[in-house]
Design goal:
Blueprint: H1 2-11, H2 20-29, H3 36-43, H4 47-57, H5 71-78, H6 80-96, H7 109-127, H8 131-143, H9 147-156, H10 168-179, H11 183-193, H12 198-206, H13 212-215, H14 222-237, H15 248-258, H16 262-283
């Protein structure tokens, strides 16, 4: 199966390469010792990235009291890791914003879903009071569905055989029936080919597995998987789905299995429309 996944990744002409700057930002996120000088070196050489980053920093999502006018100011006010995380989100936008005909998704549909999962996962991780987990949850949520970039091409030819709507389980089963694997598996393979950190690639592969954190308890990234699994389901419930829906029973079962308090999950969902709207507006250059 892994060999076939690699063959599809290599043969899919529409699959975008990971931009060089994005790859460098990813390396910075995985480097706990990276300082402001290294961040400035990567971001400061890309005027478009810098401009878009500053739009995000000045968005309603962060609600800063004064305008951020430079990357250096952003580093001082938000911190190195938050700035790198935002720059990564900005640079990855072009990769995720295109239409995916194989999934019947219009332009920006996957991008808005990914933003919603990123924001929701960060909110859920924030409940634990762990800033590092919150930052990693945002990144993991943003990239959780990259496997759809891999399977989009092969699914176009089989579009009529793929369920038009339904649960995430129905979508994944349809992918497996048609191709032999699903987008979570494909996403993990793509993440590995892009040299993502192993923990991040693992979360991508497990982002639909409600039982995964319990089954793998003791693993360092279990809390991260939990945040992304619940945020992914919650995003669909909040109107930011990507072709699938989450019914009430699946939602309640997931919260119970993962040990997430319903109040915490609902609080995270309530913030999604405003937060996603603010981030999307900043990235689109709207006030």
């Amino acid at each position: 199966m892994k060999r076939r996944l690699r063959e599809i990744i290599e043969a899919t002409g529409q699959l975008p390469a990971l931009p060089a700057t994005t790859a460098r930002l990813l390396a910075l996120m995985d480097d706990q010792s990276a300082g402001a000088a290294q961040v400035l070196e990567v971001i400061g050489t890309d005027p478009a990235l810098t401009a878009n980053l500053l739009k995000l920093c000045n968005s309603a999502y962060y609600g800063l009291r004064r305008e951020v006018g430079s990357v250096h100011e952003a580093l001082v006010m938000l911190g190195n890791r938050t700035v790198v995380q935002l720059a990564f989100a900005t640079s990855l936008g072009d990769v995720l914003r295109g239409p995916l005909a194989g999934y019947r998704l219009e332009r920006d549909a996957l991008w808005r879903h990914s933003l919603a999962v990123a924001v929701g996962a960060a909110h859920l991780a924030g409940v634990a009071g762990d800033r590092s987990l919150r930052e990693r949850a945002f990144t993991a949520g943003l990239v959780h569905d990259i496997g759809k970039l891999v399977l989009n091409g092969p699914l176009k030819a089989k579009l009529q055989q793929l369920p038009q709507t339904g649960s995430y389980d129905a979508l994944r089963q349809g992918e497996r029936d048609l191709l032999g694997f699903d987008h979570a598996e494909a996403g993990q393979a793509l993440a590995e080919s892009w040299n993502f950190p192993a923990a991040l690639a693992d979360v991508i592969g497990r982002h639909h597995d409600v039982a995964a954190p319990r089954a793998g308890r003791g693993r360092a990234d279990d809390a991260l998987v939990t945040a992304v699994v619940v945020a992914n389901l919650g995003a669909s419930r909040a109107g930011f789905g990507a072709g699938s829906v989450c019914d009430d029973q699946s939602w309640q079962d997931a919260l119970a299995t993962l040990g997430i308090a319903p109040a915490d999950a609902e609080a995270a969902l309530a913030r999604l429309p405003g937060d996603v709207g603010a981030l999307a507006a900043a990235m689109d250059g709207r006030p």
